[in-house]
Amino acid sequence: MGSKHIKKQLRTLLRAPSHVVIDELDPDSTPGYPGAGKADAPRITAALGTDLAQLQEKLYAENKEDDTPQRSVLVILQGLDTSGKGGIIRHVFGLVDPQGLTIHAFKQPTAEELSHDFLWRVRRQVPSRGMIGIFDRSQYEDVLVVRVDGLVGEDVWQTRYDQINDFEAELVSQGTTLIKCFLNISPDEQKRRLLNRVEDPAKHWKYSRGDVDVRRKWADYMQAYQDVLNRCNTESAPWYVIPSNKKWYRNWAVATLLDECLTQMAPAWPKGDFVVDEEIAAIKGSLPASGLGG
User: Fold this and answer.
1) What confidence tens digit (pLDDT) does each residue in 126-145 have?
2) Which end of the chain, N or C, is less surrounded by CB atoms within 10 Å?
3) What long-range pairs does 141-148 form, CB within 8 A, spacing at least 24?
4) Mean predicted confidence (pLDDT) in 151-173
5) β-sheet bridge partners, residue 78
6) Whole-angstrom Cα distance, residue 263 to residue 8?
7) CATH of 3-284, one of 3.40.50.620, 3.40.50.300, 3.40.50.20, 3.30.420.240
């Protein structure tokens, strides 16, 4: 089985099943990976860069024409602390032209954001036509941290799953392809990464004492994520479960999902609104043959 065939199947391999039990998901697994292991990962992932860069440029270019369908891509990265959201943004989206990207990290809501519906701040960050948007956390925070920390009543957050499904269906109907990635790590791997942040002075800036408070709520968060995966896993906006204990696999998997989705979209170069031969002649004749005098 060649890597091309494997690549085409990764969305199937990683798609969340219709009924998810998080304890049955293996964060150490490497489904579909075409290499022998970690040593091959930089080369294999970098090899996707050529395809990704050209596909992204085509998507960006075709949407400069008013008569083309409005299309964009939104990649949603969800996972607990240390699961790799920042690493994916650096290693995967570093393969493409930054002028075609928008990146937004959803932090604790501001007073202005809290004065609106929970989706208000999300709508403001949706990528425009031709762009690839990346959400570091997303609308799902309002059925995750809000639920676990009891920031609103259950009667409020329970209604949000359907609101999120309707919102995502609206995005898809308007031409946005969603790639929703749940970055699945084990509690032991998270502990190792948190200890590494504390022990390495160069990584102290990544560490927050609040990370430990969140870790103590691991079981509650896993239940909340399980409900998200089961209640917001639609045909038009499915979830992909990314085993994330191995950073090299995680990065390759997200890059491959993006490559598959862009390939299926098949963006095309827009045609010029000019006659090539005439423009060549105009360019050649646009300056005198001789240069400036001495």
Assistant:
1) 999 999 999 999 999 999 99
2) C
3) 141/106, 142/118, 143/224, 143/227, 143/228, 144/78, 144/221, 144/224, 144/225, 144/228, 147/224, 148/217, 148/220, 148/221, 148/224
4) 97
5) 182
6) 10
7) 3.40.50.300
